[in-house]
Write a structure and sequence with these properties.
Strand order of the largest sheet: 3-2-1-4-5-6
Number of domains: 2
Bound molecules: adenosine-5'-triphosphate
CATH class of the largest domain: Alpha Beta
CATH superfamily of the largest domain: NAD(P)-binding Rossmann-like Domain
Distance between the termini: 37 Å
Helix content: 25-40%
CATH architecture of the largest domain: 3-Layer(aba) Sandwich
Number of helices: 9
CATH topology of the largest domain: Rossmann fold
Radius of gyration: 22 Å
Largest sheet: 6 strands, parallel
Strand content: 25-35%
Shape: elongated
Length: 219
Amino acid sequence: MVKKEFAVIGLGRFGGSICRALSKEGMEVLVIDNDEEKINEYASIASHAVVADSTDENVLKSLGIRNFDHVIVAIGDNLKASILTTIILKELGVEYITVKAQNDYHEKILKKIGADNVVHPEREMGERIAYKMMTKNVVDYLELSDEYSLYEFTATEKIANKSIIELNIRAKYGINIVAIKRGNDMNITPQATEAIHEGDILIVIGHDDDIERFQQKLL
Ligand code: ATP
């Protein structure tokens, strides 16, 4: 993985878990929070931890924030601080800014002022969990566009012990199996003659309507 430099501003539950996950993957992470206790908590996890108010342009400048590949603004409750911080980051020329939005109104403003990526972690996680509860064979999914997605399905006995060609997946459903996970093995070039086992994780890509038709077959 290419080593990237990240900065996380705001160490609530969201910013904190972003910092932990990035650090665990060996990324350089600078964390900034105006609460000294938070900074002490993350000092041994992040590469650099600084007590600072992110609405102070000079502080961000002196930290060389514009040299970071990706800055995450994870200030939740204080909309004013979140918006002001984003404006400053944008003005300083930060390459990619992700901001946590508190509500739709906040999101609109963030997009207007040039945030590259706006996230609603609670809403997105709620939707993901609800979807998984409804569709028990779906392990995970990723929306690639409004119409196309990548899905991970667990293969049921309905399609087990048949090869991809026997199931005629591409012609019948118009979707592609791009990889098959079996235990710890990952086959990223599955052949048409490859037999599917019950419990395999199939990683498929296709149009949402076609994926849904395929999913019906699994049930
Ligand atoms: P979560 O839901 O992720 O726990 P939250 O939405 O409750 O977070 P807050 O607790 O409001 O978010 O803010 C997250 C962190 O951002 C806090 O640790 C807070 O100290 C920090 N923070 C708020 N304003 C600033 C600021 N101007 N500069 C630096 N840090 C700030």
